[in-house]
Amino acid sequence: MPKTKTPTDAIALLKADHRKVEELFEKFQSAKGSERKAALAKQICTELMIHATIEEEIFYPACKDAVEEDQMNQAYVEHDGAKVMIAELLGSSPDQQFYDAKMTVLSEEIKHHVKEEERRGEGVFAQAREAGLDMEALGERMAARKEQVLEQFKTSGLPAPKTRAFTGHMLDQSKPVEAQA
Ligand SMILES: [Fe+2]
Question: Of 43, 133, 117, nearest to 79 (Cα)?
Answer without folding.
Answer: 117
